[in-house]
Structure formats: C-alpha cells, structure tokens
Amino acid sequence: MSENEQKKYTIDDCEASKEQILYADILFYGAWGAILVLFITFGLYVSKALPSHIPLQDVPHYWHESADSWLNPWYVMKEPVKVKTGEEAKQEPVPAGASLEDVSEEKIASVMKRRISAKGEVGIDKNVAVMETAEKLGLDHHDDKVEAKLEETFAGFKEQGLLKQVKPSFPSGWEWLKMLGEGDFVNFIGVAILAGMTILCFLVALAPAYLKQKDWPYFGLVIFECLVLLLAASGILKVGH
Amino acid sequence: MLERKKEVLFGVLLGLAFIVITEPLFAQAGGMDANGGEIPWWFWPLVLFFFCFVLGIFAVLAGVGGGVLYVPLVSGLFPFHLDFVRGAGLLVALSGALAAGPGLLRRNLANLRLALPLAVIASTCSIVGAFVGLALPTNIVQILLGATIIFIAGLLLFSKNVERPEVPEQDALGKALGMSGICFEESTQEIIDWKTRRTLPGFLLFVVIGLVAGMFGLGAGWANVPVMNLLMGTPLKIAVGTSKFLLSITDTSAAWIYMNKGCVIPLMAIPSIVGLMLGSFVGVRILAKVKPKAIRYIVIGVLIFAGVRAFLKGFGI
Fold first, then answer.
1. Is B31 among the domain residues?
2. Residue A13's pLDDT is what?
3. Is residue B109 classed as helix, strand or coil in its secondary structure?
4. pLDDT of B157-183, one tens digit each?
5. Dihedral sign, Cα of residue A112, residue A113, residue A118, residue A121
6. Would B34 be classed as within a structural domain?
7. Residue B82: closest CA among B270, B190, B218, B275
C-alpha cells in the first residue's frame, strides 16, 4: 500500500457504520437477555419450582441413547421374562446373515421380550428394541421388511397390554411452546431467543439500511439469509438416523 | 527452533497425561451410573459445568473456540450420546459468538461486508451438514469427527497466520461485492486499508466449513481464520473478529436443525453454555496477565488424543 493511499483516510473513516452499530446494540441486549433468561428458567427447572415432563432423576437414563430414542416413549415389560446374564448371555450364539423367512414369529416375540426385559426398570424405546432384536436374530435392521415386521411385533405387545410406559414422548420442533408450564420446556425460551437473534438483527438493522442505500446485492444476501434461517427454524426440514 | 520443539513435546505429553488421568475416573463414574443409578441426577450436570468452566479458560488461553474442544472431549469422556453433544456444542459456540459479537462490531473488528457473503454460504451448507450428520450412523460420524479433530490439531500446530497479508490488487468478485474496509491499528497507530483476494476459492472453502460445522457441531473459528487471513488476504485482526461474529450466523442455522430434532437436553446443554461462558470470562482476565504459550500446545495435544479416541471409538475399539 502506498503512503498516498493511506493519507486518504482518517480515524473517522474507521468507525463502524450505523447499521453495524444498530446490529451490535440489538445483539448486546438480546444475547445477554437470553442468557439471563437461561439462568432463571434453568433455576426454575432444577429447583423443581415447575413440574418436569421427564422427572429430573430419570433424565440420565436416556441421554446415552440417540435423539430419536429421546423423543420416543420408553416401555418395560409388565411381567419381565427370565434373561440370560453375564457369561451365559455372551455364549449365546448369534446367527449371522439370517433372513426373515428363517425366523418364526414366536422366536421374534421371545427374543424381543427378552431384550425389553433385559433393560430392567429403565426400559427401552421401540427403535432400540427393534434394532437389538434384529441383531440377536442375525437380521439386518436396515432392511425395510425386517424393520416393519419387528415394529409390528412391538405394536402387538402394546395392543396385548404387555408393556408399561415408563417415559413419555418428548415433543420435537415447536411443540414445546404449548408445554411452557413444565420445567423442561421453559429452558427452550432462552435457547430460542439466542438462536433467533441473528434473524432479528438482519431484519431490523441490515435489511432497512441496505434498502435505503439501494445496495441490492447485500439487501438480497440479507433476505436470502433470513429465509435460510427461517427455513431451518421452521422445523419443516425433517431428518433422521 | 529447539525451544519450540520442547514446548510442543511438553504440550503433547501434558495432553496425554490429561486423557490418561481423567479417562478412568470418568469411566468408573459412568459404570456406577449404569449399574444401579447410585449417582444423583445433578452429578453429571455439575461435573459438566466445572469441566466446561475449565475448558472455557483453556480455550481462551489457547486461542481456540469452545465448540472445537467441547465436542470431542465431552463425547469422549461423558456418558452423553453424540447427538446431544453436537447439539450442545453448537449452542456453546453460538452463545459465545453472540456474546462477543457486539464488542467486535462496535470496534469495527468484525466487518459486515466481509461476513455477509461468507455467512450465507456457510450457514446454508451447515444445514446440509446437520442433515448429513444426523442421518449418518453414529459410528461413521465418530470416525469422521476423529479424523477432523486430528486435522484441526495439525492445522493449529502448523498454520502460520500473517498479521497483514499483502494484497496488491483486489479480484473482480471481491470488488463487485465491496469486500474491503478500513481499520485502525492501535499498537502502531496506523490506518489499515484492506481488501480481499482469491474471493471465489474462499467462498468454495466456506462451503466445506459450513458442512463440517453442521455435521459435527464444532463451531468453525479454526477454519474461518486461516481461510480469511491466508487465502483471502484480510488482516489477522479482522479475520479473527469477523470469524467470531460469523459463527453467530453459521451456527444459528445448524442449531435450529439440531434443536428441532430433539438434540438439546436442557439438563446438559445449559450447564455447558454457562460453564464455558464463565470460563471464557476468567480466561480473558488470565490472558491479560500471562502469555501461556505452552497452553496452546497442551490443547493441541489434548485435541490429538481426543481425535484418535473418537476415531477408534467409531471402529468400536
């Protein structure tokens, strides 16, 4: 850079633009406000001032399984069957590459009952029950037919009243808004404010400024970014394991 | 040169010691939980809070973001499924970036004209990354996470940022988007006039950065800074400030995907956020008094071992 070029600017030129300052102000109050809300709502939750959808003492039973399992209800057998444990269980042969036709319905039901019973009082959700039963039978649980058959068996247990629900389902998407009376869900207010700050700042600080400046490329970028973030926030996009 | 080698060795050894000492403790506590639920519900959130507090201090001293340390270490040492660790990791990185954003914007250390095009690319791709990460089997994600963490450790070890890269002429795309600015360097009392170069390759790399951020919930400061500084030619100060601000946008989109998918358990996410933020505050104060160069190497050492561990865990070893 030549010296002449440097002389063109003064310290005043180094100041942040008006829209940048407005963005900073909104972000400052919004982000710190959200963190304050997180403190308060988490206090309400762990002090048990609000009832919990899932009792606090039960949460550690579920967080080692996937998010899909966390969302599902969990069950135990009302009358658990005898389960092989320790060395006995390890020595049990697991057939490899079996096909659905090779396995009788009774065998599927028997293995699934044992898998559910093995979980004791903590229980199991449908997906894990299906996966573990398939593994024990040497079936591929990614196979649609296998999955459908095992899910049917699990549903049959429910219909026959063999299962007792020990964990309710946990709402996904925006359903938590309807359940703000429960301690688990009030925490999402602060999280949603944190995750919503960028959209607010873009719409209030940047979009009007670029529109006024007729800076169409950046106005377009701001609107596109808002649409991307709103799409992500909407919960329309679905994904699963 | 010899001095640096000693520091690297010292850091790596301390990192190894950290993993070796802590892992049996965590493994034993996890066993207690699995065997009979003797551990009360508040045990893991409390341990997580203090762990994240220390992590926050180390992250600041080492000059890395919280997310990049949080995901490999918490997924390796705590009994949480990777889905929840990634969800909390994104919120940790997001809250840190949102809290730092106002100061950076007011002091013009984060530049909106530089950040916006990059943010659009990275945040769109982080949604795709989140989808891919949540759709893949957990063991595959573990393997990829391990490989990414080892790569990041290498990047932190070998990457040499440049204080003020020379950019004689701006490229056409950067010029068209007005990706340039002026900032005041207090230490030298100079006014720095900067502009971008190689803007298109920079954009393409932000596609990858967005994918990785969404896939693993890592944050992406480790990648933003070298791309903006070394490739695109922005001064280091602007690259660091804009990178931190950029995370507040990039991680927002992926955080929504993870949140909507049920990957946020408040009992573990909130202690992580609060612990890391408080740790970062303390870290900044310590940083003002000491220049702990070795800390960076300790963190790199911890990252290498956390990466190897995640990699092996993915293979069931």
1. no
2. 74
3. coil
4. 887 777 888 888 889 999 999 898 888
5. positive
6. no
7. B218
Q: Answer whether B214's CB lies under 8 Å from B127's CB.
A: yes
Q: Do A172 and B260 touch (CB under 8 A)?
A: yes
| Total Cβ atoms within 10 A of residue B18 | 18
Mean pLDDT of B85-96: 90
Among residues B66, B63, B74, B36, which one has the least CA distance to residue B278? B66
- B33 within a domain of the structure (yes/no): no
Interchain CB distance below 8 Å, A233 and B260: yes
- Mean per-residue pLDDT of chain A: 87
Bigger pLDDT: B121 or B4?
B121
The chain A residue lying nearest B261, using CA atoms, is A172
Q: How far apart are CA B92 and CA B66, in angstroms?
A: 7
Q: Which of the 8 DSSP states describes residue B169?
A: S
For residue B192, the cross-strand partners are B183
Between positions 81 and 100 of A, the ones with CB within 8 A of B are none
pTM: 0.86
Report pLDDT digits (tens) over A170-180.
998 899 999 99
Using the Cβ of B139 and the Cβ atoms of chain A, whether some distance falls under 8 Å is answered with: no
CA gyration radius, chain B: 19
CB contact under 8 A, A21 and B105: yes
3-state per-residue secondary structure call for chain A: CCHHHHHCCCHHHHCCCHHHHHHHHHHHHHHHHHHHHHHHHHHHHHCCCCCCCCCHHHHHHHCCCCHHHHHCCEEEECCCCCCCCHHHHHHCCCCCCCCHHHCCHHHHHHHHHHHHHHCCCCCEEHHHHHHHHHHHHCCCCCCHHHHHHHHHHHHHHHHCCCEEEEECCCCCCCHHHHHCCCHHHHHHHHHHHHHHHHHHHHHHHHHHHHHHCCCHHHHHHHHHHHHHHHHHHHCCCCCCC
Residue pair A88/A122 in contact by the 8 Å Cβ criterion: no
Range of the domain at B262: 2-26+39-314
Lowest mean pLDDT of A199-203, A215-219, B238-242, name the range. B238-242
Q: B201 and chain A: CB distance < 8 Å anywhere?
A: no
With CB atoms and an 8 Å threshold, state whether A67 touches B84: yes
Mean pLDDT, range A10-30, rounded to an integer: 87
Instruction: Tell whether B84 is covered by a domain.
Output: yes
pLDDT over 70 percentage in chain B: 86
Across the interface, of B95, B112, B193, the residue whose CB is closest to A1 is B193
Q: How far is C-alpha B125 from the chain's CA centre? A: 17
Domain total in chain B:
1
